[in-house]
Amino acid sequence: MPSADHIRAVFARYVDAVSRGDVEAVVALYAPDARVEDPVGSSPHVGAAAIRAFYAGSAGTVSLELEGHVRVAGREGAAAMIARTRGATPMIVETLDAMAFDDDGRITSMRAYWGPDGIRPAD
Amino acid sequence: MPSADHIRAVFARYVDAVSRGDVEAVVALYAPDARVEDPVGSSPHVGAAAIRAFYAGSAGTVSLELEGHVRVAGREGAAAMIARTRGATPMIVETLDAMAFDDDGRITSMRAYWGPDGIRPAD
Predict the structure, then answer these.
(1) CA B66, CA B108: separation in Å to the nearest integer?
(2) Confidence of residue A75 (pLDDT cuts 50, 70, 90)
(3) Cα–Cα distance, A16 to A106 (Å, whole number)
(4) N or C: which terminus of chain B has fewer CB atoms within 10 Å of its end residue's CB?
(5) Which member of B42, B67, B118 has the closest CB to residue A72?
(6) Is B30 in contact with B54 (CB distance < 8 Å)?
(7) Percentage of residues of chain A with pLDDT beyond 70
(8) What is the ipTM of this complex?
(9) E strands, chain A, in order
């Protein structure tokens, strides 16, 4: 089972890679058959090709930071995050990502909790 | 579908009811066939009787507060929380609850993300 330290490190690498728009670094954190549901309730992206296409679609448009500590329970982790969009009208999106991991420490599932009423203009 | 406001209100009622040790108020927030996995990775408590027994076992021993805003995505919500245990050696447990809701606005699933390395002595 992946350690709590490993799971926390993956969350840190994830927010860094997303913020840098480094799609390959993001995809490398996922297992080949992983599932991304972003936002929760939407149709999931399954497998490396679909996940790559999903992140490529928003690469460079958002910076992401953790809000508070990552919570780790067994082979899963979750953390509140703040996303800031770049562009003419910067917005803040309050999100929260829940991830599950395989024995090799790769993400098998990511579910992002965010919605319209968690979005506001950036200061 | 339950509104975002409703989901946020249930989170507020949940932390209040748990903190007061009001088991029946907690159970009333759940659908009759709901599933509670606390912590994530443990054997779930399914159905009102099992859920009542689970909360009765810890009633009055912990106070719970939200850390940051509840995130809402469709019919699901998630929020980081701080639990403080009562007793001779008070502890702080960093947790995070993810909940799903039915059309009547009752909780159908609750998963609590917390683990050993998220526990520390209270100040």
Answers:
(1) 20
(2) very high
(3) 16
(4) C
(5) B118
(6) no
(7) 100
(8) 0.95
(9) 30-37, 45-46, 62-73, 76-85, 91-101, 107-112, 119-121
